[in-house]
């Protein structure tokens, strides 16, 4: 009996111990406690241009994307200066008996000699109904919307009277969405004639095409065909829905136009700014041989500067420093490239009346100078032969002529000091989710005892795990959020940051993931895009000293606190951002030292999370992963103690200061 009692007691003791241990383990798996203490007396400012965007001409980001031109290969130059040449994506309406189409070099534009020639073999009685001619489907279809107006411009000449129909038709080629008769007598048509007109759509089709048809026997030449919506952003040629997504980020800078696009595989196909300014008909265009498509350069240097101005962002101009991916210029021969850079700065900043390039800018419609304060000397060229020697030539020329401009070196100084002068240095971070988390410690380890050392410009970052088959994953975006918090916390040594790439046309996926995915009529932001929206008030804000304590065995919780002013509401906020990269939720206790707690109230809470860590937004479900905001009024007595931070989530708590 006594033995049995002892055995029973021991059994209950063992079971009780196991129960306590199991509850403790369950607590680690399903619940954590964390505390964040914030010093409200902090005064360190985050750089004014901390958060921005990087635009590269990749994935048809501009051509067939942000730049709203609807016609692809509008000057027939994409096939090269050969006769005959490829005219894709232009197509023929009719058959070989009724029409033949080729190219010749009869254009009136010396920089764009190619033109389209249509030999019409039929007449009004023998041509098929609707006539014969040519059509252009744009970039995988033109988005034509009922009630909207489109400006169409083209150059034409003919062997006789011109009797043609210009129309926008549906993807099947039969439904007419808009049309206009185009006619002129033979005398006028002997010479190239510019036709400008508008078409107002009576129907909608996101896969529409533009076509020119005739039933008049003879020869018609066609050149430099453009179709643009009349309602682009501020009339500057940018697609409105995509601009809306950029404006939502409130970027403080725009890095452009690349990336490898700046260099080309060879310098013969590098971005040359002087060939991208002036009348669009005279821009020769070039082969984007890195990403394998033709650019007509309608989106040129002036348009990039205008884009930055429209976004309220500082332009960061990445110049070609004498390098292609496969070739380069030796330092003794680099002087013309240095002069190209100086001319580009003068174009942006020069006096509209007294400078050569400034007066050209004014002539092209922008008399006021642009703000240009950053020059990146090349892209990912550090380590290549001649880079340092070439770089110094560019650096010295910039500082002599424009000492206020900040120069950006391609060489990473996060672990080793530079052997050449620079104001900033490029740091690119493409890695796995775990690699991104590991890099949250990088800039915290850097020495603070070098006040004149260049600061980091994290100009390209993204989780790019090769196993991902989607445009991205929420797990990757959450790791990026943790990395961004580390940059915010270390913004005394990190001056600027931008995600890469920015855009992808779903029909030309050269790189993935990309922050914004689009087609001819729709677009969505992936989770990585929505992560960036949490930082749109960071630039110029006060970084508050904070200390995070986590009462658990791991440390996959990250947090920062910033103070900023909403100028519209005329209120001061403290925003606490928290990444919880764990399977367990966390109870967060926020304490603010140096202020009366009664003067602080929780105004709103924004959460980005999903149960599908490997999923992301798609065209079928574009809002699968988007932030959700809860707002609290003065009657809600929401405590700053035991705030719940969900598992695998990014949360922002906005505290209003009375």
Automatic annotation (TrEMBL):
> What GO MF terms are annotated?
alpha-L-arabinofuranosidase activity
Q: Which InterPro entries match?
A: Alpha-L-AF_C, ASD1_cat, CenC_carb-bd, Galactose-bd-like_sf, GH, Glyco_hydro_b, Glycosyl_Hydrolase_51
Reaction(s) catalysed (UniProt annotation): Hydrolysis of terminal non-reducing alpha-L-arabinofuranoside residues in alpha-L-arabinosides
Does the record's keyword annotation contain RNA-binding?
no
Q: Per the UniProt entry, what is one GO biological process? A: L-arabinose metabolic process
Domain of life of the organism encoding this protein: Eukaryota
Signal sequence region:
1-27
Instruction: Give all residue intervals belonging to the Alpha-L-arabinofuranosidase C-terminal domain.
Output: 459-649
Q: Keyword annotations for this protein?
A: Glycoprotein, Hydrolase, Signal
Recorded E.C. number(s)? 3.2.1.55
Q: Indicate the family of this protein.
A: Belongs to the glycosyl hydrolase 51 family.
The protein here is known as non-reducing end alpha-L-arabinofuranosidase
